[in-house]
Design a protein that fits this description.
Blueprint: H1 12-21, H2 30-35, E1 38-44, H3 48-61, E2 65-71, H4 74-83, E3 92-96, H5 98-101, E4 108-109, E5 131-143, E6 168-171, H6 177-190, H7 192-201, E7 202-205, H8 208-216, E8 222-226, H9 227-235, E9 241-244, E10 252-260, H10 267-277, H11 279-289, E11 292-293, H12 319-324, H13 326-337
Parallel strand pairs: 1-2, 1-3, 6-7, 6-8
Antiparallel strand pairs: 3-10, 4-10, 5-8, 5-9, 5-10, 5-11
Helix pairs in contact: 3-11, 6-7
Length: 340
């Protein structure tokens, strides 16, 4: 039977207070690195830049550990872990939102990493089933060359206009926790009627990476995604690409990593888990992949030209409710997409 999440609602005030109030701890310890050896299998939904960033740090900090990666959508990989539960093949899963992980808690091993001491309590599962590796913001990725004379959107409501029909792309929320976070948030912010209207304007892709590529290459004007994914194109010099933080508010969600129950690599898997939460890795992810850190001891402005959190309006959502009502919501979403 699938479990239920015990993660509390994470509001912006609680998160910012936690990040401000924690003090720094020593970086990833050399003793752990020297003791760790062997192979670790990492199931990851993250992009190549993010994976390369952690592998680069691992080469230096865990020289005797080989990390192999299996990539795919978060929902796809979690269902794979479920199918393998009798004989686990993976050691770590990185990463997804609590609204998706909550349906798979029976697959996870509690682990309180020493690195979690510098991560706010609001970003850790109370029973240590997962810990946040970073914090995401939802954005609309805009290609101004594909707007076709339509004014650039400034809000979620703007995207409901008939002028945007067929110009917006999003991933499948059944396979992508990114898409699920976005659509759940819009439903809570604007209501079911608005979500149904938006569904009529959207194209749904089976892969989250297609959303980014399609907007960057000019196939769509708007892609709904996470800030870290879209900002890479801005940083890469594509002047036609911009990021919209909608006027009504956007959604902030931590992305978590988990230790697989019965992980074949045992203690070495825990060492790799610790590495993913380390200051070195989170700085590498911020600089290479623009992922906002979960740790309290990293000054984002020193490493990336991202807007300050204080300048962005956030609409808080309940991750626990999103996890509990996932199947119900996905069924309703599918009904909005059904041909008339």
């Amino acid at each position: 039977m699938k479990g239920s999440t015990m993660t509390k609602t994470i509001d912006r005030r609680t998160l910012l207070a936690g990040l401000a109030g924690l003090s720094a701890i020593p970086a990833f310890g050399p003793a752990m690195a020297q003791a760790a050896a062997g192979n670790v299998v990492l199931y990851t939904s993250n992009n190549a830049q993010s994976v390369d960033a952690i592998l680069g740090v691992a080469k230096d900090k865990l020289p005797n550990v080989k990390i192999s990666t299996i990539t795919g959508g978060s929902g796809q990989l979690l269902r794979r872990l479920e199918a393998e539960a009798g004989k686990p093949q993976g050691d770590l899963f990185w990463s997804s939102s609590a609204n998706t992980l909550g349906a798979f808690t029976q697959l996870f091993e509690p682990y309180a990493s020493p690195e979690a001491a510098s991560i706010p309590a609001a970003l850790r599962h109370p029973q240590s089933l997962w810990t946040a590796s970073n914090v995401h913001l939802v954005v609309a990725m805009i290609n101004k060359n594909q707007l076709g004379g339509t004014p650039a959107p400034k809000s979620w409501k703007d995207l409901l206009a008939p002028a945007f029909k067929g110009k917006i792309i999003i991933a499948d929320p059944a396979n992508s926790s990114t898409a699920y976070t976005i659509l759940w948030g819009i439903d809570k912010l604007l209501g079911p009627d608005a979500l149904k209207t938006l569904a009529g304007n959207l194209t749904v892709s089976s892969a989250a990476s297609t959303v980014l590529r399609s907007v960057a290459q000019g196939e769509y004007a708007v892609g709904l995604t996470f800030e870290s994914n879209a900002y890479a194109y801005v940083a890469g010099g594509q002047r036609e690409i911009s990021l919209l933080y909608p006027a009504e508010g956007t959604f902030s969600t931590p992305e978590f990593q988990v230790l697989v129950k019965g992980a074949p690599a045992g203690a070495t898997a825990k060492a790799a888990y610790d590495l993913l939460l380390s200051k070195e890795v989170q700085i590498a992810l911020l600089e290479a992949a623009f992922r906002r850190p979960s740790r309290s001891d990293i000054d984002v402005a020193k490493h990336a030209d991202l807007p300050a959190m204080a300048s962005i309006k956030i609409f808080d959502t309940d991750e626990t409710e999103a996890a509990a009502k996932r199947e119900e919501f996905l069924k309703r979403w599918q009904s909005y997409l059904a041909p008339k």
